[in-house]
Amino acid sequence: MAIKDKDKKLFVFSLTNYNAELKLLLTTLLLLCSLATLLQFIPSPFTISASDLRFCITRLSQTPPQQPSSILHEKLNSDQTIKRFFNPFGSSSYNFITMGAYRGGLNTFSIVGLSSKPLHLYAKPTYECQWIPSTKNFSSKPITTIGYKILPDWGYGRVYTVVVVNCTFNDTVINGDNNGGKLVLFASTSGGGDRNFNVTDKMEVLVEKNGDLDHTLFVSKPKFEFLYCGSSLYGNLNPQRVREWIAYHVRLFGENSHFVIHDAGGVHEKVLEVLKPWIELGYVTLQDIRDQERFDGYYHNQFLVVNDCLLRYKFMAKWMFFFDVDEYIYVPPKSTIKTVLHSLSEYSQFTIEQMPMSSKICLSDDYGKTYRKWGFEKLVYRDAIKGIRRDRKYAVQPRNLYATGVHMSENLDGKTTHKTEGRIKYFHYHGTIAQRKETCKLLVNSTNVNYEKTPYVLDTTLRDIAAVIKKFELKMIGSRLQNTTQ
């Protein structure tokens, strides 16, 4: 009897000991059953596939281990050598920063973004693209292709460099049934940064909804004849100079044109007032890209911006122009921009000769009236130095380009010509766009002048048409900008 009482006590003691473990086990089973029930009601787009699980497991296996609370710097080996340790913390730059992803055709896409410059200089990062159809059936499985990378900023990048990833899926028409889907980019460091780890980042870069794809877009006539892709605007810009520039170029390019302006901090309230009339008329699109300042790229990420503009509007324009808001495109009086570009239609790209103008020398005839004159009306002296190479700007037929630069593109199909003298040129008023005070520093009455060790000649080409531009502005938007100041 004593033995049985002892066994009974032992049994009760054991149950008491395992009580906590039993509660934990039962709670876990309850949660798993609840989760299994809930998964039945989740829509199919949210299902977890085997590939998703493999990706998660892969990422976990590639993630560097967490550092212990006590960092080990060195230890003495049994052979009396000193073993040194390297302990990494944080990350100096991102693997990939997307700005945009666009179709380049029925079976091809382009993704534009920033990536770590040291990663591309000292390693070989790779890219893979995957299209995941919205329709879930046997014939609509995800497909993948190797991404071809283009580095269009010619090494000008800083912490970040510009990367354009081209994803071409052989001869397959992507989203041919127009049921929608999404494009996923896998960006792998391939040992860059830390050779012990090949980290792959997965990002959803483009989503097409049911009915989004217009199959005729890639072969139909473009919406605009001329489209301007502006570089990043930053700093304390002069509203009057912006006013003059936009009025001049809307008249030059005509009613079938459009201007894409990128605000990197330069479109303050007064500049916005100048652009608003043209936005309302449908000539201007203003994009706020101020967040790009977070990422240290070349010149307010100028190369990133022009590539995004190229790829975004690639099929919307016959001709695309790249130049700045202190530069004025000009064609001779007996021609028009249409006739000039028609004569260059056999080329995918042509460059434009620069006419550098002084930003300080004005005519003495304008004494006391310079503040009333428009910038290109009063700055009439051109740099006459010969035999030096000057920057050129350019125009392209965008459907023939894969990526672009600031002064020209090296990634295109077709021919390029630089022999455009006499047909088209641009006047460059360097520094005037950010000058808020009176620009005229020297008033002269001569056809030739030497100033600051530079020879200048009188050139009134744009001054002679200033009245025509002012009249055009008045006709288009009325007098609402007449009180614009510098």
Automatic annotation (TrEMBL):
Listed EC numbers: 2.4.1.-
A single cellular component GO annotation: membrane
UniProt keyword annotation of Glycosyltransferase present: yes
GO molecular function: glycosyltransferase activity
Sorted UniProt keywords: Glycosyltransferase, Membrane, Transferase, Transmembrane, Transmembrane helix
Pfam families to which the protein is assigned, alphabetical: Glyco_transf_92
Lineage top rank: taxon: Eukaryota
Major site of localization recorded for this protein: membrane
Family: Belongs to the glycosyltransferase 92 family.
PANTHER family referenced in this protein's UniProt entry, alphabetically: GLYCOSYLTRANSFERASE FAMILY 92 PROTEIN (PTHR21461)
Name of the protein in its database record: Glycosyltransferase family 92 protein
